[in-house]
Amino acid sequence: MQANRAPAGILAVIAGVAIFSVQDVILKGLSDRYPLSEAMTIRSLVAMPLILVIVRLSDGTLGRLFTPGTGWMILRGLLNFLAYTAYYLGLAVLPLATTTALFFAAPLFISLLAPRLLGEPAVPAASAAVAAGFVGVLLIAQPGQGGLGLAAVLPVLGALGYALTMIAARPLGRTETAAAMAFWGNFGFLVCALILSAIFGHGRWAATAPEALRFLMLPWIWPQPLDFLAMAVCGAIAAAALTLLTQAYRVAPAALVAPFEYSFMFWALLWGWLFWGDLPDPLAWLGIAVIIGAGLHLLRAEARATAG
Protein backbone atom coordinates (compact mmCIF):
# COMPACT_ATOMS: atom_id res chain seq x y z
CA MET A 1 0.00 0.00 0.00
CA GLN A 2 2.81 2.36 0.91
CA ALA A 3 4.63 1.60 -2.35
CA ASN A 4 1.48 2.44 -4.30
CA ARG A 5 1.40 5.86 -2.62
CA ALA A 6 5.05 6.60 -3.29
CA PRO A 7 4.40 8.39 -6.64
CA ALA A 8 1.92 10.67 -4.89
CA GLY A 9 4.54 11.52 -2.25
CA ILE A 10 7.17 12.25 -4.89
CA LEU A 11 4.78 14.49 -6.87
CA ALA A 12 3.80 16.30 -3.67
CA VAL A 13 7.40 17.12 -2.72
CA ILE A 14 8.26 18.25 -6.27
CA ALA A 15 5.19 20.50 -6.34
CA GLY A 16 5.91 21.80 -2.83
CA VAL A 17 9.45 22.91 -3.56
CA ALA A 18 8.40 24.41 -6.91
CA ILE A 19 5.79 26.54 -5.15
CA PHE A 20 8.26 27.53 -2.41
CA SER A 21 10.73 28.69 -5.06
CA VAL A 22 8.28 31.40 -6.13
CA GLN A 23 8.44 32.89 -2.62
CA ASP A 24 12.21 33.33 -3.01
CA VAL A 25 11.69 35.19 -6.29
CA ILE A 26 9.13 37.50 -4.67
CA LEU A 27 11.22 38.30 -1.60
CA LYS A 28 14.38 38.86 -3.62
CA GLY A 29 12.42 41.20 -5.89
CA LEU A 30 11.10 43.19 -2.91
CA SER A 31 14.39 43.33 -1.03
CA ASP A 32 15.47 46.73 -2.39
CA ARG A 33 12.24 48.50 -1.38
CA TYR A 34 10.84 46.94 1.80
CA PRO A 35 12.36 45.49 4.97
CA LEU A 36 12.29 41.74 5.51
CA SER A 37 10.23 42.22 8.69
CA GLU A 38 7.42 43.92 6.73
CA ALA A 39 7.26 41.18 4.12
CA MET A 40 7.33 38.46 6.78
CA THR A 41 4.67 40.16 8.92
CA ILE A 42 2.22 40.32 6.02
CA ARG A 43 3.15 36.80 4.91
CA SER A 44 2.59 35.37 8.40
CA LEU A 45 -0.72 37.18 8.90
CA VAL A 46 -2.06 35.83 5.62
CA ALA A 47 -0.75 32.32 6.31
CA MET A 48 -2.27 32.13 9.80
CA PRO A 49 -5.95 31.51 8.89
CA LEU A 50 -4.92 29.20 6.05
CA ILE A 51 -2.81 27.08 8.40
CA LEU A 52 -5.68 27.03 10.92
CA VAL A 53 -7.87 25.51 8.21
CA ILE A 54 -5.16 22.91 7.56
CA VAL A 55 -4.97 22.15 11.29
CA ARG A 56 -8.75 21.73 11.45
CA LEU A 57 -8.83 19.44 8.42
CA SER A 58 -5.83 17.31 9.35
CA ASP A 59 -6.16 17.12 13.14
CA GLY A 60 -9.94 17.32 13.42
CA THR A 61 -9.83 19.92 16.20
CA LEU A 62 -7.99 23.13 17.04
CA GLY A 63 -7.54 21.79 20.56
CA ARG A 64 -4.51 19.80 19.32
CA LEU A 65 -2.63 23.11 19.11
CA PHE A 66 -2.36 23.41 22.89
CA THR A 67 -0.29 20.61 24.38
CA PRO A 68 2.58 20.31 26.87
CA GLY A 69 4.92 20.69 23.90
CA THR A 70 3.51 24.06 22.76
CA GLY A 71 6.38 26.05 24.27
CA TRP A 72 8.94 23.88 22.50
CA MET A 73 7.09 24.30 19.21
CA ILE A 74 7.17 28.09 19.65
CA LEU A 75 10.91 28.00 20.39
CA ARG A 76 11.40 25.90 17.27
CA GLY A 77 9.45 28.52 15.31
CA LEU A 78 11.71 31.29 16.62
CA LEU A 79 14.80 29.32 15.59
CA ASN A 80 13.24 28.72 12.18
CA PHE A 81 12.71 32.46 11.78
CA LEU A 82 16.36 33.16 12.58
CA ALA A 83 17.40 30.54 10.03
CA TYR A 84 15.26 32.00 7.27
CA THR A 85 16.24 35.56 8.17
CA ALA A 86 19.86 34.64 7.50
CA TYR A 87 18.85 32.90 4.28
CA TYR A 88 16.77 35.81 2.98
CA LEU A 89 19.43 38.36 3.88
CA GLY A 90 21.84 36.35 1.78
CA LEU A 91 19.24 36.04 -0.97
CA ALA A 92 18.94 39.83 -1.17
CA VAL A 93 22.58 40.25 -2.25
CA LEU A 94 23.58 36.89 -3.76
CA PRO A 95 22.39 35.13 -6.91
CA LEU A 96 19.35 32.95 -6.26
CA ALA A 97 21.04 29.69 -7.31
CA THR A 98 24.11 30.45 -5.20
CA THR A 99 22.03 31.16 -2.09
CA THR A 100 20.00 28.00 -2.60
CA ALA A 101 23.08 25.84 -3.12
CA LEU A 102 24.70 27.14 0.07
CA PHE A 103 21.46 26.51 1.98
CA PHE A 104 21.61 22.89 0.85
CA ALA A 105 24.34 22.43 3.44
CA ALA A 106 21.43 21.80 5.84
CA PRO A 107 21.29 17.99 5.33
CA LEU A 108 25.02 17.88 6.02
CA PHE A 109 24.55 19.75 9.31
CA ILE A 110 21.69 17.39 10.22
CA SER A 111 23.89 14.37 9.64
CA LEU A 112 26.72 15.94 11.63
CA LEU A 113 24.65 17.12 14.61
CA ALA A 114 21.80 14.61 14.99
CA PRO A 115 23.98 11.82 16.45
CA ARG A 116 25.40 14.25 19.02
CA LEU A 117 22.13 15.97 19.97
CA LEU A 118 19.71 13.03 19.75
CA GLY A 119 22.04 10.13 20.45
CA GLU A 120 21.25 8.60 17.06
CA PRO A 121 23.79 6.23 15.52
CA ALA A 122 26.13 7.95 13.08
CA VAL A 123 25.94 6.88 9.44
CA PRO A 124 29.38 5.53 8.39
CA ALA A 125 29.37 7.52 5.13
CA ALA A 126 28.40 10.75 6.86
CA SER A 127 31.87 12.11 7.57
CA ALA A 128 33.00 11.82 3.95
CA ALA A 129 29.74 13.32 2.66
CA VAL A 130 29.92 16.24 5.09
CA ALA A 131 33.57 16.93 4.20
CA ALA A 132 32.76 16.84 0.49
CA GLY A 133 29.74 19.09 0.99
CA PHE A 134 31.76 21.76 2.71
CA VAL A 135 34.37 21.62 -0.03
CA GLY A 136 31.43 22.45 -2.30
CA VAL A 137 30.54 25.40 -0.08
CA LEU A 138 34.09 26.72 -0.39
CA LEU A 139 34.01 26.31 -4.17
CA ILE A 140 30.88 28.46 -4.32
CA ALA A 141 31.97 31.10 -1.78
CA GLN A 142 35.57 31.24 -3.10
CA PRO A 143 36.94 33.03 0.00
CA GLY A 144 40.02 35.12 -0.54
CA GLN A 145 39.64 35.01 -4.31
CA GLY A 146 37.39 38.03 -4.77
CA GLY A 147 34.44 35.70 -4.24
CA LEU A 148 31.21 36.20 -2.34
CA GLY A 149 32.82 37.25 0.94
CA LEU A 150 30.89 37.55 4.17
CA ALA A 151 27.50 37.41 2.43
CA ALA A 152 28.12 33.73 1.66
CA VAL A 153 28.15 33.00 5.40
CA LEU A 154 24.48 34.01 5.73
CA PRO A 155 22.88 31.10 3.80
CA VAL A 156 25.23 28.67 5.57
CA LEU A 157 24.13 30.06 8.95
CA GLY A 158 20.57 29.72 7.71
CA ALA A 159 21.27 26.10 6.82
CA LEU A 160 22.65 25.47 10.32
CA GLY A 161 19.55 27.00 11.94
CA TYR A 162 17.24 25.05 9.64
CA ALA A 163 19.10 21.82 10.44
CA LEU A 164 18.56 22.44 14.16
CA THR A 165 14.81 22.95 13.60
CA MET A 166 14.62 19.67 11.67
CA ILE A 167 16.51 17.88 14.44
CA ALA A 168 14.11 19.39 17.00
CA ALA A 169 11.17 18.15 14.92
CA ARG A 170 12.16 14.52 15.48
CA PRO A 171 11.42 14.30 19.22
CA LEU A 172 8.53 16.76 18.89
CA GLY A 173 7.01 14.64 16.13
CA ARG A 174 6.44 11.81 18.59
CA THR A 175 3.82 13.84 20.47
CA GLU A 176 2.85 16.75 18.21
CA THR A 177 1.19 16.85 14.80
CA ALA A 178 2.84 18.33 11.72
CA ALA A 179 -0.02 20.84 11.37
CA ALA A 180 0.45 22.05 14.96
CA MET A 181 4.18 22.51 14.39
CA ALA A 182 3.41 24.47 11.22
CA PHE A 183 0.98 26.72 13.10
CA TRP A 184 3.37 27.53 15.95
CA GLY A 185 6.22 27.92 13.49
CA ASN A 186 4.20 30.56 11.65
CA PHE A 187 3.30 32.16 14.99
CA GLY A 188 7.01 32.39 15.81
CA PHE A 189 7.62 34.03 12.42
CA LEU A 190 4.96 36.65 13.16
CA VAL A 191 6.24 37.46 16.64
CA CYS A 192 9.85 37.79 15.46
CA ALA A 193 8.86 39.91 12.46
CA LEU A 194 7.00 42.32 14.74
CA ILE A 195 9.99 42.52 17.11
CA LEU A 196 12.35 43.27 14.21
CA SER A 197 9.92 45.89 12.96
CA ALA A 198 9.95 47.61 16.35
CA ILE A 199 13.78 47.61 16.39
CA PHE A 200 14.59 48.49 12.79
CA GLY A 201 11.33 49.75 11.28
CA HIS A 202 12.32 53.41 11.58
CA GLY A 203 15.05 52.85 8.98
CA ARG A 204 17.54 55.05 10.82
CA TRP A 205 20.45 52.70 10.21
CA ALA A 206 19.61 51.61 6.67
CA ALA A 207 21.91 54.10 4.93
CA THR A 208 25.00 52.97 6.84
CA ALA A 209 24.16 49.25 7.11
CA PRO A 210 26.32 46.72 5.24
CA GLU A 211 24.71 45.62 2.00
CA ALA A 212 23.92 42.16 3.35
CA LEU A 213 21.96 43.67 6.28
CA ARG A 214 20.16 46.41 4.38
CA PHE A 215 17.11 44.19 3.71
CA LEU A 216 16.69 44.00 7.49
CA MET A 217 16.98 47.75 8.19
CA LEU A 218 14.94 49.44 5.47
CA PRO A 219 12.16 51.64 6.86
CA TRP A 220 8.58 50.40 6.94
CA ILE A 221 6.52 52.08 4.24
CA TRP A 222 3.00 51.34 3.09
CA PRO A 223 3.44 48.91 0.17
CA GLN A 224 2.16 49.57 -3.31
CA PRO A 225 -0.92 47.45 -4.09
CA LEU A 226 0.95 44.96 -6.28
CA ASP A 227 3.77 44.70 -3.73
CA PHE A 228 1.26 44.12 -0.93
CA LEU A 229 -0.38 41.42 -3.05
CA ALA A 230 3.04 39.81 -3.62
CA MET A 231 3.71 39.73 0.14
CA ALA A 232 0.27 38.27 0.76
CA VAL A 233 0.84 35.63 -1.91
CA CYS A 234 3.90 34.52 0.11
CA GLY A 235 1.49 33.59 2.91
CA ALA A 236 -0.60 31.44 0.57
CA ILE A 237 2.59 29.92 -0.84
CA ALA A 238 3.83 29.03 2.64
CA ALA A 239 0.55 27.35 3.58
CA ALA A 240 0.17 25.44 0.30
CA ALA A 241 3.79 24.33 0.00
CA LEU A 242 4.00 23.29 3.65
CA THR A 243 0.86 21.19 3.22
CA LEU A 244 2.31 19.47 0.17
CA LEU A 245 5.64 18.74 1.86
CA THR A 246 3.91 17.44 4.98
CA GLN A 247 1.70 15.22 2.82
CA ALA A 248 4.72 13.93 0.91
CA TYR A 249 6.46 12.72 4.07
CA ARG A 250 3.18 11.38 5.45
CA VAL A 251 2.34 9.07 2.55
CA ALA A 252 5.82 7.95 1.42
CA PRO A 253 9.11 6.99 3.11
CA ALA A 254 11.36 9.96 3.83
CA ALA A 255 14.31 8.21 2.18
CA LEU A 256 12.31 8.02 -1.05
CA VAL A 257 10.96 11.58 -1.23
CA ALA A 258 13.80 13.59 0.39
CA PRO A 259 16.14 13.45 -2.65
CA PHE A 260 13.45 15.15 -4.74
CA GLU A 261 13.79 18.28 -2.57
CA TYR A 262 16.91 18.94 -4.61
CA SER A 263 14.63 19.76 -7.54
CA PHE A 264 14.53 23.20 -5.87
CA MET A 265 17.93 23.79 -7.49
CA PHE A 266 16.39 23.62 -10.96
CA TRP A 267 13.93 26.38 -10.09
CA ALA A 268 16.60 28.51 -8.44
CA LEU A 269 18.75 28.33 -11.56
CA LEU A 270 15.79 29.00 -13.86
CA TRP A 271 14.35 31.96 -11.92
CA GLY A 272 17.80 33.47 -11.31
CA TRP A 273 18.55 33.35 -15.04
CA LEU A 274 15.13 34.58 -16.18
CA PHE A 275 14.72 37.47 -13.72
CA TRP A 276 18.28 38.58 -12.95
CA GLY A 277 20.45 37.04 -15.66
CA ASP A 278 22.47 35.20 -12.99
CA LEU A 279 24.38 32.05 -13.81
CA PRO A 280 27.07 30.46 -11.61
CA ASP A 281 30.70 30.63 -12.70
CA PRO A 282 32.54 27.33 -13.42
CA LEU A 283 33.81 26.91 -9.84
CA ALA A 284 30.35 27.60 -8.45
CA TRP A 285 28.82 25.04 -10.85
CA LEU A 286 31.33 22.52 -9.53
CA GLY A 287 30.47 23.48 -5.93
CA ILE A 288 26.74 23.07 -6.61
CA ALA A 289 27.36 19.62 -8.09
CA VAL A 290 29.51 18.60 -5.10
CA ILE A 291 26.92 19.77 -2.53
CA ILE A 292 24.03 18.03 -4.28
CA GLY A 293 26.10 14.89 -4.82
CA ALA A 294 27.15 14.82 -1.16
CA GLY A 295 23.58 15.35 0.00
CA LEU A 296 22.17 12.61 -2.23
CA HIS A 297 24.93 10.21 -1.19
CA LEU A 298 24.18 10.97 2.45
CA LEU A 299 20.43 10.38 2.01
CA ARG A 300 21.13 7.07 0.29
CA ALA A 301 23.52 5.98 3.03
CA GLU A 302 21.01 6.91 5.74
CA ALA A 303 18.28 4.97 3.94
CA ARG A 304 20.50 1.89 3.78
CA ALA A 305 21.44 2.24 7.46
CA THR A 306 17.75 2.52 8.43
CA ALA A 307 16.80 -0.46 6.30
CA GLY A 308 19.66 -2.49 7.75
Helices and strands in order:
Elements: H1 2-30, H2 36-59, H3 70-93, H4 96-103, H5 106-118, H6 126-141, H7 153-172, H8 178-200, H9 214-217, H10 225-251, H11 254-257, H12 264-276, H13 282-307
Helix pairs in contact: 1-3, 1-10, 1-12, 2-8, 2-10, 3-7, 3-8, 4-7, 4-12, 5-6, 5-7, 6-13
Key attributes of the depicted protein:
globular, 13 helices, 308 residues, single chain, 75% helix, mainly alpha
Q: What is the structure about, briefly put?
A:
The chain contains 13 helices and no strands.
Oligomer: single chain
What's the shape? globular
Low-confidence stretches: none
User: How many helical elements?
Assistant: 13
Percent of residues in beta strands: under 5%
Number of domains: 1
N-to-C series of helices and strands: HHHHHHHHHHHHH
Helix content: over 70%
Overall structural class, as computed from helix and strand content, comes to: mainly alpha
Span between termini: 21 Å
Q: Average pLDDT across residues?
A: 85
Question: What characterizes the major β-sheet?
Answer: none
The number of E-state strands comes to 0
Q: For the CA atoms, what is the radius of gyration?
A: 19 Å
Give an overview in words.
The protein is mainly α and 308 residues long. It has one domain (2-307). 75% of the residues lie in helices and 0% in strands. The protein is built from 13 helices and no strands. The chain has helices at 2-30, 36-59, 70-93, 96-103, 106-118, 126-141, 153-172, 178-200, 214-217, 225-251, 254-257, 264-276, 282-307. The longest helix has 29 residues, at 2-30. The model has no long low-confidence stretch (mean pLDDT 85).
